[in-house]
Design brief:
Number of strands: 11
Number of domains: 3
Distance between the termini: 68 Å
Shape: extended
Oligomer: single chain
């Protein structure tokens, strides 16, 4: 057996392999026998069919392919190990010449990670705009809890107010033409927390039950539907019902209903702890991003188009699946934004993702950072606690979805590398003047 590894470009090799005729014929015979055991041929018992009959029934090309599937992996594995190749994807079989009685000639393409020229990534000092929670953060969190446990009470004998909930029929049009998806029946709308077009909810104040009227609004310039973005619209409205939101009092009795708290002060301290932790997490996220972005931006690296396109294709499929799961039309999105425009935007994101992955991988390799069983076990334990389930059930989910397990492993590894970077660089927090 002979092998020849030829470098094509920065990240591709052509591997030519010649396998002895005797070894190839032996594997061919094994493949033929194996396939013969799994086919039903009239007049012959399974495993007893003569080779010429099997070849005629399943085809010689299929037998050869099965033989190559057995012969090729260990040869490629040896070449990869011997040359210390860092593969991106599985090697691709490009061509083969398999004639019985002659040496088999096989050509494969191997794609490896491109060379990564890392900058200094230790001993740096980075400045991070410090996030500080607003002084009224605790009060806002308490108000959010009150809203969550509020009840709605029917309003009779007064007009709608800014903090009411209204139930409306609405029908929108532009220049007399109905807006697609711009109509609804008995829709519940929280006037103070509306996600409708700006200016819509405010025009529902000071109205009575049964009132029918028209309002005018302008769609934002950046509205997702480009056909109506920036255009003026008219909506016919009918008020069916008005309800007032009744909030619970912030007293000890309410605190006891929320968890293991004896007094409202206990609960407020709990909320303060949550706000402080959120502030700490936000500052860590900022530090991680600024540090990693600095290293990535200063890294010299030529990313092959094949890697970018593969990642962009994955992102496109991911977004399409998300839209369909939400009951939205992916075809409509393509029509509105244009396939080329979406693809080009995804390629930019894909290039950044690929570069990030290659840079972190190079750092891990250089520093000997590896994923251990303990790392994985700890993350499983955290997930079980977060979802209030048993660790065995998380493992069961992972065993059913290999992609999920691989994704989790990548997350753990990436965070481990980022933790290493934070430990080996200085973070200096400065005033955030962007507010």
């Amino acid at each position: 057996m002979n092998t020849n590894l030829e470098k094509i470009d920065n990240n591709q090799f052509k591997l030519s392999i010649e396998i002895d005729a005797e070894i190839a014929s032996l594997e061919y015979n094994k493949a033929c026998k194996k396939l013969g055991e799994n086919v039903n041929i009239p007049g012959f018992r399974k495993g007893k069919t003569p080779r010429p009959i099997i070849e005629k029934h399943v085809g010689m090309d299929r037998i050869k392919q099965k033989a190559i599937d057995v012969l090729l992996p260990p040869i490629i594995a040896d070449v990869i190990s011997e040359n210390q190749l860092d593969l991106i994807t599985e090697p691709v079989l490009e061509a083969y010449d398999f004639q019985l009685g002659k040496p088999v000639v096989i050509t494969t393409k191997i794609e490896v990670k491109p060379e990564v020229k890392l900058p200094e990534y230790k001993g740096l000092t980075i400045e991070v705009p410090e996030f500080k929670a607003k002084e009224d953060s605790v009060e806002k969190e308490l108000e959010a809890v009150r809203n969550k446990f509020s009840r709605l009470e029917q309003v009779i004998g007064r007009q709608s107010r800014s903090n009411d909930i209204v139930f409306i029929d609405f029908n929108g049009s532009i220049n007399g033409e109905p807006i697609k998806g711009g109509a609804g029946k008995n829709h519940q709308l929280d006037i103070a927390n509306s996600h409708f077009i700006p200016g819509f909810a405010e025009q529902l104040i000071d109205k009575n039950i049964g009132d029918e009227f028209k309002i005018n609004v302008t769609f934002p310039e950046d509205y997702h539907d480009k056909n109506i973005a920036g255009k003026e619209a008219e909506f016919a409205i009918k008020i069916n019902e008005i309800k007032e939101k009744i909030l619970p009092e912030l007293n000890d009795e309410f605190a006891q209903k929320l968890g293991p708290f004896q007094t409202m002060d206990d609960f407020k301290n709990h909320i303060k702890g949550y706000v402080d932790k959120s502030q700490e997490n936000e500052n860590r996220v900022r530090a991680e991003k600024i540090l990693v972005d600095k290293i990535i931006d200063e890294t010299k690296l030529d990313i092959p188009d094949t890697m970018i396109n593969r990642e962009a294709k994955y992102l496109m499929e991911e977004i399409e699946t998300r839209f369909k799961n939400q009951g939205l039309s992916w075809e409509q999105v393509i029509e509105q934004q244009g396939h080329e425009n979406i693809w080009n935007n995804l390629r930019e994101e894909a290039a950044r993702r690929v570069k990030t992955s290659l840079v972190l991988s190079a750092i891990a390799k250089g520093e000997g950072i590896t994923l251990t069983e303990e790392d994985f076990t700890l993350r499983i334990k955290e997930l079980a606690q977060a979802y209030n389930t048993e660790e065995s059930k998380v493992y069961e989910q992972m065993s059913k979805n290999i992609g999920l397990a691989q994704g989790l492993s990548q997350q753990i590894m990436s965070q481990k590398i980022i933790n290493y970077l934070l430990e080996n660089n200085e973070v200096k927090y400065i005033e955030d003047i962007s507010k």
